[in-house]
Amino acid sequence: MERFAFLFHPLRHTDFARKFPILMKLPPPWVEGAMKYLPPLHISHVTGARSITGIELEGDFVGLGMTPRVLLEADFQHFVLPRLIKAGQMAERLGAKILGLGAFTKIVGDRGVSVARALNIPVTTGNSYTAASAVIGALQAVDRMRFERSEVEACVIGATGSIGRAVSHLLAEQVASLTLVARNQERLDALSGDLGGCAARIQTSQDPRQAARSSDLVLTVSSATGVLVEPEDFRPGAVVCDVARPRNVSAAVYEHRDDVLVIDGGVIRVPGAVDFGFSFGFPPQMAEACMAETMILAMEGRYESFTLGGDIEVDKVRQIQVLATKHGFKVEGFRRFERAIPDFEVEQIYQRAHGAGA
Fold it and tell me: Taking Cα atoms as reference points, which of 184, 164, 139, 154 lies closest to residue 334?
């Protein structure tokens, strides 16, 4: 039996109530301030995951009581890192052979490198499968909005970053045109040259809003801490996939553009009758890509720090997708703000966009 562990944390104060319902009655600032001092918690035991090759998998969820704001604002070396290491040590005691970092625990500090050095088991951020599944999910969303992939005009905002480069390589094989967006023109030119042999027409831009306005598909993967695109920057029916953390897409896009499909990426169906033992807002058997990468590596017996630090290798993105297919993991549906988007809502967005464009 292969074993893994996955570390996650509450994304908003209401998430604390998933484990401790009584906390819903307390003021949010008090809850957030108090819970960050809690030691790591064993949240649940995961059973029933089974590869289509027959390999069975068990695991554990370990939780930290720190919200994204706390993780980003607290001192990494003296406050955050010791708690991440303690959580990893709990995973070791639970029998895990690999630890996955979820949500903002894979963003803070040096993106898992120091955690991996302090533990006796490998660590992965899951960003390779996040990149792969973001492209798959985005293209599936393009299909649902009735675009022909061979005619799609796409852009990647933050294209010269680690995830951006990987996403750009994958997208350039699938769409009609691809606009690479970043601040450094020299790096844009270098990436454009690398993609010169792809089928897509490659363009570059330093203006994310202008690029978004001329695109059917927009993927944002920039490391910028602020919002880069606003509601008025999208065509009716556009697909917007916001992979960046912190987010590059204004929440106002979701609130005010009901004719635009905004997603965080694909939702992954885990093979077998998996029971996570805890509800994190997804339908049964569904997981986020970073969690799925950890499970895939465990099923494959590849107990290594597959994705760490700020760099993501395109070859590893392709490798993890091959392994996902081998073991029966599939991108199935979409998510937004870490919640699954129901099919009827996707159809409603298409109908509004169709009416707006009529």
Answer: 139
Q: What is the pLDDT of residues 134-172, one digit of tens each?
A: 999 999 999 999 999 999 999 999 999 888 999 999 999
The CA-to-CA distance between both ends of the chain, in Å, stands at 56
Instruction: Give just the sign of the alpha carbon dihedral 250, 171, 281, 246.
Output: negative
Q: What's the topology of domain 130-266+336-357?
A: Rossmann fold (3.40.50)
User: 249 and 220 in contact (C-beta within 8 Å)?
Assistant: yes
Please state the three-class secondary structure of 271-299 as a single string: CEEEECCCCCCCCCCEECHHHHHHHHHHH
Q: What DSSP designation does 49 have?
A: E
Q: Which residue has the higher pLDDT, 43 or 223?
A: 43
Q: Where are the alpha helices (DSSP H) in 160-204?
A: 162-171, 185-194
Which residue intervals of the chain are DSSP H helices? 28-35, 68-73, 81-93, 113-118, 127-144, 162-171, 185-194, 208-213, 251-256, 289-300, 314-327, 343-357
Cross-strand bridge partners of residue 219: 156, 241
Tokens of 219: 């993927």
* pLDDT tens track for 68-109: 888 989 999 999 999 999 999 999 999 999 999 998 899 898
**């990893």: which residue's tokens?**
88
Q: How many angstroms separate the CA atoms of 38 and 215, rounded?
A: 45
pTM: 0.88
- Distance CA(239)–CA(228), nearest Å, equals 16
From residue 16, alpha-carbon distances to 32, 83, 189, 232, 276 in Å are 9, 18, 46, 35, 17
Which residue, among 170, 162, 182, has the nearest Cα to 137 in the 3D structure? 170
Residue 313 has φ and ψ, to the nearest 5°, of -85, 130
Task: Provide the residue ranges of all domains of the chain, joining segments of one domain with +.
Answer: 2-128+268-329, 130-266+336-357
State the residue for tokens 């606009």.
179
**pLDDT digits 0-9 by tens, 315-333:** 999 999 999 999 999 998 8
